[in-house]
């Protein structure tokens, strides 16, 4: 008998002063049995960092993620179904990223393991022709501290200012300082 996903709820308040994006989002996260708290929390963080200021070009959505290998972890699709932003986590292979780059206006990857620099060094040269690709490393000790905030029902405040990210609950907070491994050509 297959194990079912565990449902987590997150009330997410975003104050992104760098992008001038402010809002509240109620997320329902289907955490697959193979997904760790760390990966789930990085997925929530990626949502907060990429939530659009409005829904005029479509909403950012959590996809089926690990349950469907053909979908990213998050994506923003316009009203016609075209993919505006494809967001993956971890260390996807270069073929997956090239395919995503061909399908989406923008592609972002958030790596969070100690081995992220090694993974990136192995595929970086294959992705030089991807001008719309952004690759970020969340330092492993910070993503692990973020995982400690995970609960079945969460109220999270995400504040972004001057490139620094602060994720807070009523009890504690974590500072995240992502490292840009690759930025899009237009930035």
Index terms:
single chain, 187 residues, alpha/beta, Restriction endonuclease-like alpha-beta roll fold, six-stranded mixed β-sheet, five-stranded mixed β-sheet, 21% helix, YaeQ
Q: Which secondary structure elements does this structure contain, and how are they paired or packed?
A:
Blueprint: E1 6-16, E2 21-31, H1 37-50, E3 60-62, E4 74-77, E5 83-89, H2 94-103, E6 104-111, H3 116-123, E7 133-137, H4 140-147, E8 153-161, E9 164-168, E10 173-176, E11 179-182
Parallel strand pairs: 1-8, 5-6, 6-7
Antiparallel strand pairs: 1-2, 3-4, 4-5, 7-11, 8-9, 9-10
Helix pairs in contact: 1-4
Mind explaining what this structure looks like?
The chain is of the alpha/beta class and 187 residues long. The chain has a single domain (7-182), classed as Restriction endonuclease-like alpha-beta roll domain (Restriction endonuclease-like alpha-beta roll fold), CATH 3.10.640. 21% of the residues lie in helices and 38% in strands. The chain has four helices and eleven strands, in the order ββαβββαβαβαββββ. The chain has helices at residues 37-50, 94-103, 116-123, 140-147; strands spanning 6-16, 21-31, 60-62, 74-77, 83-89, 104-111, 133-137, 153-161, 164-168, 173-176, 179-182. Strands 3-4-5-6-7-11 form a six-stranded mixed beta sheet. Strands 2-1-8-9-10 form a five-stranded mixed beta sheet. A hairpin with a 5-residue loop joins strand 4 (74-77) and strand 5. The radius of gyration is 16 Å and the shape is globular. The termini are far apart. 27% of the residues are buried. The mean pLDDT is 93.
């Amino acid at each position: 008998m297959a194990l079912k996903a565990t449902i987590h709820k997150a009330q997410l308040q975003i104050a992104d002063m760098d992008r001038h994006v402010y809002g509240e989002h109620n997320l329902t996260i289907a955490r697959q049995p193979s997904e760790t708290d760390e990966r789930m929390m990085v997925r929530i963080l990626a949502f907060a960092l990429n939530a659009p200021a409005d829904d005029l070009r479509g909403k950012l959505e959590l996809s089926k993620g690990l349950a469907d290998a053909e979908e990213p972890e998050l994506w923003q699709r316009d009203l016609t179904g075209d993919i505006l932003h494809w967001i993956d986590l971890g260390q996807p292979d270069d073929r997956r990223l090239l395919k995503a780059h061909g399908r989406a206006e923008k592609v972002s990857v958030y790596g969070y393991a100690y081995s992220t620099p090694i993974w990136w060094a192995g595929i970086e040269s294959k992705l030089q022709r991807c001008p719309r690709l952004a690759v970020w490393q969340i330092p492993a000790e910070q993503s692990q501290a973020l995982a400690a905030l995970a609960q079945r029902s969460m109220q999270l405040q995400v504040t972004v200012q001057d490139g620094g990210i602060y994720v807070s609950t009523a009890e504690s907070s974590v500072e995240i300082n992502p490292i840009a491994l690759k930025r899009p050509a237009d930035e």
